[in-house]
Amino acid sequence: MDKLYLSIRDDNINVEAQAGTPAGRTAQSLFKIIQFLFYRVPHKDRKRFISRVRGKITRISPAEIGMKKLPPTASIGQAISLSKNLLSGLNPIFINEVLKELVKLLATSTPHVSTPPLPGEKI
Predict the structure, then answer these.
(1) SS (H, E, C) the chain
(2) Residue spans of the chain under pLDDT 70
């Protein structure tokens, strides 16, 4: 499994991501999405772009995000927007194939709900 390292603010402390934990698995999934999005960034600019994203992520307020309440139907729009953003700019034939496969997966999937931990609950 790939090791992820996070540089904590300006400190030169490297912490290995804990891939076995729910938080670590979630972080890895988000990391893979970010990597996929960055494949379009010219190779010479990737390090700078990743540094900017890392900086912005360190300034995210977990409390603010945790307090947000979205209606359940918001997940439909988010799923569609994410799919469109990930596929934008790709070959239309490839997009068509991906969408066909995605529709098949959605048609045969059984709803799996992973409940988020409660505040203060140990993960």
Answers:
(1) CCCCEEECCCCCCEEECCCCCHHHHHHHHHHHHHHHHHHHCCHHHHHHHHHHHHHHHHCCCHHHHHHCCCCCCHHHHHHHHHHHHHHCCCCHHHHHHHHHHHHHHHHHCCCCCCCCCCCCCCC
(2) 1-19, 111-123
